[in-house]
Amino acid sequence: MTTLDRAKQIAALIDNKKGEEVRVLQIGTLTTIGDYFVVATGNSTTQVKALADEVEEKLSAEGLEPKRIEGYASASWILLDYYDVIVHIFLKETREFYALERLWGDAPEIDWMK
User: Fold this and answer.
1) 19: number of CA atoms within 13 Å, CB side?
2) Which helix (H) or strand (E) holds 46?
3) Which Pfam families does this chain map to (predicted)?
């Protein structure tokens, strides 16, 4: 599976659990930290955790473990680092405050539903 396929898979997993505003940004030409960001919003800390849990459980079943997980305790912004694909799951207010898409405005957005 390519890293783009993995990013699309993660976006679909989040979308299937009712994550909102799911976006995939191609960051590989702008930085060395990874190839893609998957960015999504949950409506509550419970949903943010559930979205992160879904991604972690499904990828773990395929033998892929995250390099690290940040923010799970507070659940206003959970980061799952899968090396080349970095997943950001936010509460709406936190996503608006940090404006990751604006910060990475030069990163092309990928149509992950294709």
Assistant:
1) 29
2) helix 45-61
3) RsfS
